[in-house]
Amino acid sequence: MAASSKVTVVLKAVKKITVQFCPFESNVGSTRMFLSVMSSHKVRATNLNCEVIPTVKHDRSEPVVEITYLDGDKLMLKGAKLDCSEMLSAFQSMCAAKELQAKLAAAKK
Amino acid sequence: MAATLCRILLPKQGWLPFTQCVRHGSKSVTRHKRPLHFLKQKLMSVTRYIPPPRPAPIGAYPRQTIRDQEDDPFTMLVKKNLKSVFQESKMIAVVQNSGSTADEMMLLKYKLHKHGITVKFFPNQVMRSFLKDSTYSNMAPLFIGHTVLFISKEPKVKEMLSSLRTSRHMLLLGACIENTLLSAQGVVSYSKLPSVAVVQGELVSGLTLLTSQTAAMLQRHPAQLSALLQQHVKQQSSEGAPKAQEAT
User: Fold this and answer.
1) pLDDT band for position B2 (cuts 50, 70, 90)
2) Interatomic CA distance for residues B107 and B117, integer angstroms
3) ipTM of model
4) Rounded-to-integer distance, Cα B109 and Cα B172, Å
5) Chain A residues inside the 8 Å CB shell of B98
6) Measured between alpha carbons, how far is B136 from B145 in angstroms, rounded to an integer?
7) How far is B99 from chain A (nearest CA, A)?
8) What is the phi/psi pair of residue A58, to 5°?
């Protein structure tokens, strides 16, 4: 499974992750996998202040993952047509960019 | 023959020979296969033609799909178990487990066992193939990822919801309560419903409201009853007169 790859997810720059999906739809597999990865013990241990809020709906809406970063930026992943590995790679690249920004800001100080 | 006829003639010392034999020794055209030069041998082996694999003719091998459709004995055992579970229990809730530890799981199982709710795990593939054949086919999309089943003979929804609220990793996806498939919000509203006796009492009281009012009026003092009826007649006549005026 792509979710259990060797690259671990680090949540240091993340404030909140909101996952909403309708479980009776057929396109929610990747979103549910993403949620299970984010809720795993290892990933949660990287940042204990980060909240993972899952919401179960029943209105035929598309599955959406909204990630709020510490500096106020938001990343929205619409999981209807995305694969779990694609969502993870997009999330990790954004996190890496944020961490780099934070490091540069700290180095300037 | 040319090789045997070639002879080196050196009549005097210091003279170059008239004919110099270039081809001598081995022949190029032989009856046996001449061993190739090593470099040529390497080149030939590297550039050897490998034809593409031709597919087997249709009907040469039996189809693989027939083998996959047959269930192995373990799957059949699990399906039997599932059948009995669906027949006996009134409440079957599907919950997604996202990374709970063994301790949390144990505590949850203990809390639920006190109310008669058992926690069961079944493989998703077997579950989906069982549901496909049964009347509960609409539950099949719920079973993706790590899912847990909460089964109980009595629909104890309030206790289940309270224990799920305390656990962080368990997420209620849906439930099949008394052969009715409910979503998560449906389960919450089901828990807020009053008991059957209360609902029946409300229904009966609503139906008998008018007749009970009539019975109460008839049981009053006759003078009061006659005064009420006179008032009623007056009101009807006063309503009838304005309506006649409006009509004209």
Assistant:
1) very low
2) 13
3) 0.83
4) 15
5) 35-36, 38-40, 54
6) 19
7) 5
8) -145, 50
The whole-angstrom distance between A25's CA and the closest CA on chain B is 7
Q: What is the rounded radius of gyration, in angstroms, for the C-alpha atoms of chain A?
A: 14
**Which residue among A40, A44, A56 sits closest to B171, beta carbon to beta carbon?**
A56
Residue A24 and residue B98: Cβ atoms within 8 Å?
no
Q: Which residue of B has its CA nearest to A24?
A: B141
Residue B103 CA neighbour count, 13 Å, CB half: 1
- Cβ contact B183:A58 at 8 Å: yes
pLDDT in tens, A8-67: 778 888 889 999 999 988 889 999 999 998 888 888 888 888 888 999 988 888 899 999
Q: Crossing angle, helix B196-207 and helix B209-218, to 10 degrees?
A: 50
pTM, 2 dp: 0.67
Q: How far apart are CA A85 and CA A87, in angstroms?
A: 5
CB B183 within 8 A of CB B174: yes
Q: Residue B235: enclosing H or E segment and its boundaries?
A: helix B222-247
Give CA–CA dist B116/B7, Å, rounded: 113
Asked if A23 is an interface residue toward chain B (Cβ–Cβ < 8 A), one would say yes
3-state DSSP assignment of residue B88: helix
Residue-wise pLDDT for B136-168, tens only, equals: 888 899 998 899 999 999 888 998 999 998 888
Q: Dig out the tokens for B221 from the structure.
A: 């003092």
Interface A:B, Cβ pairs < 8 A: 50
Mutation choice for B interface testing from A19, A40, A58 by most B CBs within 10 A:
A58
Does the beta-carbon distance from A29 to B145 stay under 8 Å? yes
Mutate which: B95, B138, B144, vs A, most A CBs within 10 A:
B144
